[in-house]
């Protein structure tokens, strides 16, 4: 069987031209950056295996499953020749009066910025699929597979290999000029496009994120311990909290931005052009009582298209009660 890119060489005029077109289309779709990783630059199995062996993935059993798919891009898309990595800025703080770090007077609970808009899984996937459709108009035989967050793909690894940005000590990808307030998404292609080169990490002597982390989840030189991460407990953990081992959540109702807010690379980052989800604009300043009063129906009405919907009202209420000392 012939692959879509059989006539294309990675450095050829055609391949460079195609990447240029992809970048233009991405910009039209509102995606800030796009770069390509070579599938040959596979992730180190030991980093993932040791992370799992230590139990750093907490209750996220799905991360231990499909290990081979996570480590081998050729299993994710047989015949893969390029991994197109996109960064989509999500910080909407510039567009509105956002609660500032430490400014939680009046008992306002905080929602991390990644959750202020409409569900990014849906929105980013739609944009990446639109890119695939435009490519297919030129190359009908193209094999492509899109990944956004939930797919068994180590997204930060590929984005770093593509040179889209570099991984900071907080573990997030920092994109020059944008900071780390970006979502990542990928298109695996059987088409050889010119790959980028990794950027040098530029944390220097800074350790602000490690100091700012409320649960002590971040460790020098290796991926974080999710058992100590507020984001894990407020977003991923379902059901009652265990008696021991949950860090102090306050003021984070959903997600946590402490490590990223402390990061100097996020000081002047470009904001998102997307609006805050209508149901959330005023809720960004709510107290635990406000969330309690909302009720399941009110929650569905306001939050159904946002990342909060995945957690569900019961878990959101559990978080609010915990912060208010009532759980
Ligand atoms: C599970 C998960 C979580 C878990 C666990 C976090 C973790 N660090 O693994 C929890 C729930 C805690 C979480 C929290 C958050 N997440 Co999250 N999460 C994921 C998910 C689904 C899988 C990550 C994974 O596979 N982890 C396993 C570890 C071993 O892999 P890894 O962290 O990707 O790291 C690999 C490499 O990057 C490298 N590496 C990573 N860190 C470091 C550090 C050092 C020192 C070294 C040497 C190497 C290294 O080694 C690893 C193996 O190759 C990804 C989406 C995806 N499919 O990749 C989103 C993703 C990483 N999350 C994202 C976001 C936005 C968040 C939050 C900011 C949300 C919030 N505000 O609450 C926080 C940030 C917390 C933090 N400081 O990392 C974005 C990050 C975007 C970016 N700019 O980097 C992603 C990419 C989703 C997306 N599509 O945009 N998340
Ligand atoms: S998201 Fe919060 S708890 Fe998790 S590593 Fe960052 S600062 Fe620590
Ligand atoms: S806060 Fe400092 S150490 Fe942490 S990621 Fe940002 S620059 Fe690196």
TrEMBL record:
Gene Ontology MF terms: 4 iron, 4 sulfur cluster binding; epoxyqueuosine reductase activity; metal ion binding
Protein name as annotated: tRNA epoxyqueuosine(34) reductase QueG
Organism domain of life: Bacteria
Class in the EC hierarchy, top level: oxidoreductase
Pfam families assigned to the protein according to its UniProt record, in alphabetical order: Fer4_16, QueG_DUF1730
This enzyme's EC code(s): 1.17.99.6
Keyword terms of this UniProt record: 4Fe-4S, Cytoplasm, Iron, Iron-sulfur, Metal-binding, Oxidoreductase, Queuosine biosynthesis, tRNA processing
Organism of provenance: Eiseniibacteriota bacterium
One GO-annotated biological process of the protein: tRNA queuosine(34) biosynthetic process
SUPFAM superfamilies named in the record: alpha-helical ferredoxin
